[in-house]
Write a structure and sequence with these properties.
Chain B: It is found in: Membrane. Chain B: Its main location: membrane. Chain B: One of its GO terms (molecular function) is heme binding. The complex is a heterodimer. By secondary structure, chain A is an alpha+beta fold. Chain A has 4 domains: 104 residues, no CATH class; 125 residues, TATA-Binding Protein (2-Layer Sandwich), CATH 3.30.310; 108 residues, no CATH class; 142 residues, no CATH class. Helix content of chain A is 33%, strand content 34%. Chain A contains 13 helices and 24 strands. In chain A, strands 4, 6, 10, 11, 12, 20 and 21 form a 7-stranded antiparallel sheet that branches. In chain A, strands 2-3-22-23-1-24 form a 6-stranded antiparallel sheet, covered by helices on one side. Chain A has a 5-stranded antiparallel sheet with strand order 13-14-15-18-19. In chain A, strand 7 and strand 8 form a beta hairpin. Chain A is elongated. The two termini of chain A are 40 Å apart. In chain B, helix 1 runs antiparallel to helix 3 and helix 4 crosses helix 7. In chain B, 55% of the residues are buried. Chain B is built from 11 helices and no strands. Classes of the chains: A alpha+beta, B mainly alpha. At the A-B interface, helix 2, strand 8, strand 11, helix 11 and helix 12 of A face helix 7, helix 9, helix 10 and helix 11 of B. The complex binds protoporphyrin IX containing FE. Protoporphyrin IX containing FE sits at the interface of chains A and B.
Amino acid sequence: MRTHLKTALAFLRNTWRGLTSMRTALVLLFLLAMASLPGALIPQRSQNQTEVDRYFDEYPTLAPVLDDLGVFEVFSSVWFASIYVLLFISLIGCLVPRCAEHYRQWRAKPVRTPRNLSRMPHHAETTVDGSVDDALGAARSRLRGWRTAEEEEPDGARSISAERGYLREAGNLIFHFALVGLLIAFAGGKLYNYEGQVIVMADGSEFCNAGTYNYDSFIAGLNVDGTGLNEFCVRVNDFDVQYQHTGQVQSYVVDTEYQSTEDLQTGQWQPHRLEVNHPLRTSGDRVYLTGNGYAPQFTVTFPDGQQRTQLTQWQPVDVPTMLSQGATKFDRPGVEDERERRQNQIAVSGLFAPTPAFDGAVLSSQFPDLNDPTVAVDVLRGDLGLDSGRGQSIFSVDQQMVEQGRLNREARENLRVGEEVRLADGTTVRFDGVERFANLQVSHDPTQMWVLGFAILIIAGIGASLTIKRRRVWVRARPADPADPDAGRTIVEIGGLARTDQAGYGEEFYTLTEDILGTDADRTSETRADLGAARGRND
Amino acid sequence: MAVNETLSTYSDMAYATSVVLYMFAMLLYFAEFSYKRSANPAAAAQRERELVGAGGGSAAGTGVGRVETPAKRPMAERLGGMAVAITVLGALVHGASLIARGVSTGRAPWGNMYEFGSSICLAAVLAWLIVLYRQSRKVHRDTTAVQLRALGGFLMLPVAVLLFLSGTVLYAEASQLEPALQSYWIVIHVSAAIVSTGVLLLAGVASLLYLVRVRHENSPEKMAAVGSRLPGSRALDRVAYRATVIIFPVWTFAIVAGAIWAEAAWGRFWGWDPKETVSFIAWIVYAAYLHARATAGWRGVRSAWINVFGLAVMIFNLFFINIVVAGLHSYAGI
Ligand code: HEM
């Protein structure tokens, strides 16, 4: 039993050691890089659902297998998570002892001057005028900013040991801990964030962040149930788009007003110029402009004189020219009977071009701005299928209804603003004009400032860790003539050791010895110290 | 704001001139390279050892860091000197081309793939010149600038190719940026990414040559033609390591700045967009390189391979992700 326990403990200890070794960290880093790769090469659901669907069409046998492996959601897959969790366990296991060690070094005195300084990788020696005191004084003032300790040696020599660059390790530890912090903040954000999309007409329409039902789509973290959203309202007054002559967009400016906190009670509105790169930040939420489009307005006048007007967004199908497609749907007013009502619904469905171009009678658009707004529409009458229980797109009519003959085309016409088309029973459909709409996105992520803070620590930490060098210098001064210590000649010897990569240390050592010893000291520098390693021998 | 057509034409002309100059410099570097007596490998190794010794400033009276100059400068050295001079000239003309682009459009001159590629090359060339300059100062070094010049042709080659591709296939007329790119973050984020990519290109080339050189050093009959003329493996490793170490925090910063910009432009700071993903992968690979350098058994050849792999990821990120994969960065315009 005891031995079992012992083997189990030994096993655990060895596993732990293995897990926290640099080698394991290296392997896990590689695995993480490899595991991320499909995320860039294979379409991801979180990015682009349509691309994923296309992938399924193109590789009907492969795609389901990949799907089971989670390849279409790499960054939320179990295997991806297990790699980084292991990596972070390894990291913490590696950091804690390093912290303790660093603390000890921080408190300790610089290492005593070794007896034989000429065996150090860097060494310089010369004889100077002046006493031992003078020499040490010069060294001391040159080594200001270093951590030093002085020592009397038995044979009358005195020495200073100096060390510098403790911040390197501190920076490194900060960097690694900040990585952990960033991951935790990032993961926390994923629990509490939400992102909603909504379309708002640029005619003074309002949107309020009162509940998820106000959104066209709403994605939220696990801990968000859609209640208790931060309250604010946005009103879109005007939408100004500037185009270059090429049709490329020069700028979008959405003239908005918003109210939050007290304004909600007092009814005050605050103005805000919403632009790309300039979201509205209020109540801990952000409102972005993510897209735009046109909404044509139609008025239907029924034979009995009743009128109905609708402004409905149509979907841009060709973004450079803003050719748009949609369907605007009407119920006949004043009809009580359910069946009769359903036989008299009207849809105006087709294409919209802000600046039309005709190929025969086929409409396309040649420029995205509103130069001569034109629609090419079918007017359909019958049952739109709105009560069929099937969901339907707001941008098209239900084709099944057309196929079953329950929805019939009664006219096909190209209309400019103000023009109308008359149906057989005297109903007219007029194209009144067009309004722009804005696609707004409301985002909420309570931890993003934390993520930013950790990211800044990461940069600061790694900067310190990679630019600061940990290095030691020892200066020893002894009388040139031990028999006559006051003769005024002193032998000064300096040894140097870079505790991390030697690169660049020689330079500092050179200037340091120049300052203390003058230019004609004898110097040796071991440039071959790590030659074996650099030669590619894998030791 | 309208584009100044005259100025952008001058910019294009300067660009073409700089490509020609770089190619000329490349030929001169290679001329110096092949002029160098490779002699027999053993002698070359011997000479290398001597040079290292001299570079180390051993007690000999040559002075620290100076290899004694022979009475007459050999042909090879004169070619190399010309190569460097022409590289400097090329960089000046290249810089002028970018400035003219920037002024003609009234914005930072890295708004599309053509301009981006051009800036990266300039960053790589400048990094190279800085390395040469630092190497030629009097404090002692393990290699002299003259020896290091053997790298020159191998750096100018990818630079010339990249510039050629940018100037032809990827060329874009000078024009205004679309709204999402109109932000001061383009100056911060993109310039950091440009400098990082340029310097990492230099580091990757050094690591690649290191691999060649090590093979040659370990068995002199291998890779003799190239290997024997390269600087010592230690010097190559040093260039690669120093370049990577200096630029890794900058690359980290570039990614963080990108995330801050994305928060303002795209509505979230990180969304695993293909560009973001591959930048993350490259970051991990370079972190692995730094770790490998500190791990027994991974120094030397293995870590050099990681650095080369890192460069491959960066290049993949530049071309494949911008052009082939549809992502938010694709709109940077080709
Ligand atoms: C998310 C994973 C990690 C990343 C991105 C990362 C990144 C880095 C970077 C960029 C450095 C600087 C290299 C240098 O100072 O030369 C570094 C150093 C270091 N890392 Fe990590 N690291 C990670 C995980 C780990 C783990 C799991 C361990 C321990 C098992 C570890 C141990 C170390 C050590 C000891 C150093 C100092 C090496 C040196 O001074 O050269 N790291 N790390």
